[in-house]
Every structure is written in C-alpha cells, then in structure tokens.
Design a protein that fits this description.
single chain; 133 residues; alpha+beta; 3 helices; 6 strands; 31% helix
Length: 133
Amino acid sequence: MSNTAPDAIKAVIKERSDLFERNFAAGDAAGLVRDYYVSDDLEPVVSAGDGPALVGHAAITALFEGFTGAFEKARQVPRFIRADGDLAYEISNSYLTPKGGGEEVEYRYVATWRRCDDTWRVDSDFFAPGPLV
C-alpha cells in the first residue's frame, strides 16, 4: 500500500468528510450514515471504542443519533490517508462541539475506505476519545 493516497482519492475523502460534517450539523444521523458508509448489504462496521462493534446502518444510525443529540457540529481533520486499488485508510482527528457551548471534544479515528460503484465510502470505522498523538 502506498504511503500516501493519490490527490484524487484525497479529494473524494475530503468531499465525503465535508458531507459527513453537514449531515452532522443538520442532526441528520440517517443521512450521515447513508452518505458516508458503504451500503447495508456490505455490512459497515463501527466501533466507538467502549463497547461491541456495531454492524449495519440501523445500529450505526442509533449511535450517531446520540452524538448529534449531544453535539452541534463535527470537524474532521485528516492526518494520514493511504490507498491502493479499491481500498484506502485514513488516520485522523475529529473535533465535536457540544450543544450549549463548552470545550471541543477530541476523538481519534481510523477509517477503512472502499471504492464503491458511485464513490468511496467508509467500510470500517474505529474511533475513541482522545488525541491521535
């Protein structure tokens, strides 16, 4: 796997991350999952780091309903993106702004991206509170 992804793949991941942020700010957990993760038949997997892995759109949507209920916005900040063929992975930070004010909450995440028929989407996602480094 290449040490860095081609600019075209980075651009698509940025576009998908921007869409994630817009859906998050709108409180649209179902749209966030639909637009960011692979289709349900490919069984997307998310681990929030403090419980069992969640598989499928319904479970992942329920998780993000909790996040969008507590936070008003998410800001994705990519650190490393690597790609080869139809797979890529991203190691990044996410910063969540609490509803009603307060300090941003920092998360670190690793997302495995898969090339799909229409665009790149996240296949597997692991995130946990705290800084990347």
